[in-house]
Amino acid sequence: MADVKTGRFTWANGALLELLGYDWQEIEALSVMDLHPPEVHQLVTEKFQQSLHDKSPFTVQVPVKRKDGAIRTVMLKSAGLQLDGRDCAIAIFTDITQRVKAENTLHTAHLQLEQVLARLNDSAGEVQRALLVNPPPHACPRLDVASRVVPAENVGGDFCDFMPHREECLDLVVGDVMGKGMASGLVAASIVGNCLRIIAGMLMNSARPDWIPSPSEIVESLHSLMARELIVLDKFASLCYARVVPEKRQAALVNCGHQQTIHYCAARGVCELVENTNMPIGFAMREHYLERRLDIDADDILVFYSDGITEARAPNRKMFGVHRLIRTVEKTADESAETIMDAIFGKLTSFSGDEQQRDDRMCIVIKVRSVTSSPPRTIVETTVDSTPEQLRTLRKKLGGALKRPEFKTLSAKDRQLLLLAVQEAGSNIIQHAYGGASGNPITLCLDLLDRALRVTLIHKGIAFMGKASKQPEDMDDFQETGYGLQIIENAVDNYRFFTDSTGKNCICLTKHMQQARARTPEKNVRLSAGT
To answer: Which one is predicted more confidently, 50 or 146?
Structure first.
């Protein structure tokens, strides 16, 4: 007990004297603050004053000094009272030094365990990336393949693997095990390993050297092998097993509860979602898996992906969705598989912003190469300053190049639309990338592709991403600006914004060209009588 006015002790029991190592005469000569290190004086004073003002007790954990200088930790419980007309404070000291020491030891051990688990998780993630996220093969020259997996944790449930059977036959399996972490990673490893084991066993037992088991046979065998153990583990896996044979212009898919595959048909310039009719692996013991066949042709694209892409959220909680993914594929369909992949993840990054990634993101892009396809041929490459006058010069030079024989199938209207798109794109570079400042470079490259032409405007200014104000998905997508980009979108078949490998920012405009029709030789034309 202490006198509030003087801060001196008026009474102490034997337990407190033993805790502090003083006798009563020594305690009586001390003040309350003499028992505490200087760093907690303000805290103790504020607690006492607040208790007296509110007439309520308080509890605080503080250090106290013993006579021998040792520091003990106590739980101090105090309350004010009137004693013989004096304001006094009565306090109970509970020694919790050993408990605090044990808690600190436990906390340190917990931190060390987290570090060990983090290192283990990092190692497991490296193993998974080495074994379950295999790079696309180069064994099929008719197929341009790109793949990418970004786990939400070091070990994720997404997996993909490729199995080329011969030059013109590529199998792939993509999937997503329910949940994340090591357990899902181990199940994913088991699925990929069993797929390879099943195929090897079937090939060894076959008497026909050119025979390959169908995707549905492989998936049926995988389900029979793993369904029971997956049900016991309370795990299941969505997956899609696909076979692409460009020589036969066919693809076969067995989709087991996975995301619908996107098929871009180059002949029509649109994407379709391939219907999914099967249940996931391990969802039920008795299941029959149906195979879906697709007709594919040169420049067709197949996109396989996980729900970590379509369910990625923006800061406003809207989902990325499959329609944004489809639009990205359609806008970059003339590019390589890797460029399409870069566009997908670039769009995903800009959409998600600072929102935390909560699920694994996996994507595979397969583009069928044309037998007669040739690399792009640059027709014009020129650089001007960032002024409206120089932009008119650039447009005039492009207009002259478009009159060359290589572009004879391009109509006069399409030429004018392309020039309009270049004018609008160049104006955006001057305004947004260079802030209206002159003296900065704008480079134009005109490339001839197999069935299209491509105009790329390159600048060194601030990168900006365009979004046209056209057909908003909902009212939240409505915006008051961007109609200049709508002009570009209506003038060309595809456009995109990106940063190239050298760090330069680009606006790429693509325009399809009709193939020239063969004219019937005049000597073979016969006119009927009376014509």
So the answer is: 146
